[in-house]
Amino acid sequence: MNYTRISADCHIDMPWIPPDLFTANASAALRDRMPYVTDGPDGPQWTSKNGASFGLVGGVGPSGQKYVPGVHYRADVMASTGLRGRQEGNSPPDHS
């Protein structure tokens, strides 16, 4: 599915946007200041050069928490219907 809009109703859900959105579109002068995705202990995660963490790619809620069954009702419903990812419920959407 090709998304042409990003929901930005007073926030950006970092866990659900393409992993190269900022680095691919930033000027060379600003690229090293942009958030990027790196491997973390619980899977791919958003981070920045100054060490700030913005959550897991495909994580639960706007803070990108790890999916743990029984903790978030909405995420459990999504998992039971197949809307939640392919690997332990923590997988980002296909942006291709």
Structure write-up:
The structure is a single chain. With 96 residues, the chain is an alpha+beta fold. 15% of the residues lie in helices and 15% in strands. The protein is built from two helices and three strands; from the N terminus they run H-E-E-E-H. It has helices at 21-25, 73-81, and strands spanning 36-40, 43-47, 53-56. The chain has a three-stranded antiparallel β-sheet. A hairpin with a 5-residue loop joins strand 2 and strand 3 (53-56). The radius of gyration is 14 Å and the shape is globular. Mean pLDDT is 79; it is low at 86-96.
N- to C-terminal separation? 7 Å
Order of strands, main sheet, comes to 1-2-3
Gyration radius, rounded: 14 Å
Task: Determine the structural class based on helices, strands and strand pairing.
Answer: alpha+beta
* SSE sequence, one letter per element: HEEEH
Count of DSSP H/I helices: 2
User: What is the helical fraction, as a range of percent?
Assistant: 10-25%
Largest sheet: 3 strands, antiparallel
Q: Which term fits the overall shape?
A: globular
In short:
This protein has helices at 21-25, 73-81; strands at 36-40, 43-47, 53-56.
Blueprint (SSEs and pairs):
Layout: H1 21-25, E1 36-40, E2 43-47, E3 53-56, H2 73-81
Antiparallel strand pairs: 1-2, 2-3
Keywords:
single chain, 96 residues, alpha+beta, three-stranded antiparallel beta sheet, 2 helices, 3 strands, 15% helix, globular, disordered C terminus
